[in-house]
Design brief:
By secondary structure, this protein is α+β, with helices and mostly antiparallel strands. The chain folds into 3 domains: 328 residues, no CATH class; 78 residues, Alpha-Beta Plaits, CATH 3.30.70; 65 residues, Roll (Ubiquitin-like (UB roll)), CATH 3.10.20.300. It contains 11 helices and 24 strands. The strands form 8 sheets. Strands 15-10-1-17-16 form a 5-stranded mixed sheet. It has a 4-stranded antiparallel sheet with strand order 19-20-18-21. Strand 19 and strand 20 form a beta hairpin. Helix 3 runs antiparallel to helix 4 and helix 4 crosses helix 7. The radius of gyration is 23 Å and the shape is globular. The two termini are 24 Å apart.
């Protein structure tokens, strides 16, 4: 199984992670081609080679029009009495050490918490407008979400988009379904964290239009790059945390700022003696949404290394390092998993797709629905979620959020898995990744990646089954029938 380990040496942000994955081997041409299917015109990706503490690394900047989008606030909660055309300004102040106080890509944040009715938030305290930025960064750059030019309805807040608007932009692309779902899950975590610290709601959080394109490119690009590299599982180191304060319009906030701290709940932090914010909110959202485990690097066979640079220089390398590798495992090794189940008889089937996507993005191993007949002859469905033990509580919470069930049940199961690896096959229609399953070194199954086959079929106007068959045949030829155990009895 191919894995990626995020070694957050100097911290993590969206652009740093994207740069590291490109440096580790993600193909730039394929990446930009996929990202340009997003309905976000007028941007380009600048990639350059730089040094941080004498280490060579890639540095990525997203340019929108003639400039990098460096000056817009990332998120804002509009004030309750603001006219619809008003855009809250950001009072950017210099840090006392001369660092500009900006969010990813140098953006300052402006947050304004709208009131909620008693029916929405009973007993909630009044909210107060305040500005802050989360990036006294080692050159980490954050970003915002902007207009896609796809004819979507304007946000009621001039120059901003809601989380739902951002999700529509991502889903309008031709990127693989899993990439779209995972990218949306990252933005959801970011918006939920902002809403939580301000006692607000997901719908009240708005992403500023100006400079927005770079944020979507950073996040979607990082998720897509992992897909292009064939990464099936992500691990992450403990995250470095500087100290000091972030200056804002109403005083100073401690590092990490509230939204970042909300995102980092449950993640291990290590103290770094530097007055700077090393993990941006977007970096925190990516790390916590993508990584299945935090801690030391797992045992693996190292295949590649990539370095992504932040803007500034510190006494330590201002880098995030990505290590790609293969985890060797025993194919007959039993793995304990949990099965979460709920019987549901009162939910529209139209809502199941959203529940499937949310659970799979959050780490579910598999999700399925089985028709059943309940008491009084009512047709219903059993909603089943297979997961790792450490994910059970989180996935149960999502199941309650996304379905109408009033309760769930758990059972512990053992499973035996084949060793899996990805190979790249060349067909007359283009390259297609193929998953190979082995038992004690013997190939037992070969499966072309559906999304790759679908993309090649669309590009060439060829029936999907023809592309699938060509990829399967190419894989057999490459691996050789003699290597497989499918042609006869083998113990």
């Amino acid at each position: 199984m191919r894995v990626a380990y995020l070694d957050c040496v100097g911290g993590i942000s969206g652009d740093m992670l994207l740069a590291a994955l490109l440096d580790a081997g993600a193909p730039l041409e394929a990446l930009t081609a996929g990202l340009h299917s997003l309905p976000l015109p007028g941007w380009e990706l600048d990639v350059s080679r730089v040094e941080r503490s004498s280490l060579a690394a890639l540095y990525v900047t997203v340019r929108v029009g003639d400039d990098a989008a460096d000056d817009a606030p990332l998120l804002q909660l509009p004030p309750p009495d603001a006219p619809l055309e008003r855009v809250v300004s950001t009072d950017q102040e210099s840090h006392e050490h001369g660092h500009s106080h900006t969010h990813e890509h140098g953006h300052a944040h402006t947050h304004q918490s709208p009131p909620a009715s008693a029916s929405e938030r009973p007993g909630a305290p009044p909210t107060h407008a305040h500005s802050y930025s989360d990036s006294e960064l080692p050159g980490h750059t954050h970003s915002t979400f902007g207009h896609d030019g796809a004819g979507d309805k304007e946000s009621p807040h001039h120059g901003t988009r809601t989380f739902a608007d951002v999700a529509r932009v991502i889903h309008a692309s031709s990127l693989p379904h899993g990439v779209r779902e995972q990218a949306v899950a990252v933005f959801r975590k970011l918006a939920e964290a902002e809403a939580a610290v301000h006692g607000s709601t997901l719908d009240a959080v708005h992403f500023h239009e100006v400079g927005a394109v770079d944020s979507i490119v950073d996040v979607v690009g990082a998720v897509f790059a992992l897909h292009l590299l064939g990464v099936e599982r992500v691990y992450c180191s403990a995250l470095p945390n500087g100290h000091g304060f972030v200056r804002c319009a109403h005083g100073r906030m401690p590092i990490p700022p509230p939204a970042t701290a909300e995102l980092l709940k449950g993640a291990p932090l290590r103290a770094v003696d530097v007055e700077a914010e090393l993990v941006t909110p977007t970096g925190a959202a990516l790390a916590t949404a993508l990584a299945e485990e935090f801690g030391p690097m797992p045992s693996l066979r190292l295949l590649g290394v990539g370095y992504g640079a932040g803007k500034k220089e510190f006494a330590f390398p201002n880098l995030v390092r990505v290590l790609l590798g293969e985890i060797e495992s025993n194919s007959s090794q039993a793995t304990d998993v949990f099965l979460i189940e709920a019987n549901i008889d009162d939910q529209s089937p139209q809502l199941y797709e959203a529940a499937f996507g949310a659970l799979l993005s959050a780490g579910a191993l598999d999700v399925w629905v089985t028709p059943i007949l309940m008491k009084k002859g009512r047709p219903a469905q059993t909603f089943s979620v297979l997961c790792r033990p450490e994910d059970r509580e989180r996935l149960t919470h999502i199941l309650f959020q996304e379905t109408t069930t009033l309760g769930v049940r758990y059972s512990a199961w053992g499973r035996t898995c084949l060793d899996r690896e990805w190979i790249e096959t060349d067909t007359a229609f283009g390259s297609v990744r193929v998953k190979v399953g082995r038992e004690e070194g013997v190939i037992r199954t070969i499966a072309p990646e559906y999304e790759d086959c679908r993309r090649r079929a669309t590009e060439t106007g060829t029936p999907l089954k023809v592309v699938h068959g060509a990829a399967l045949a190419a894989a057999w030829i490459r691996l050789g029938a003699a290597e497989t155990g499918l042609g006869g009895n083998q113990s």
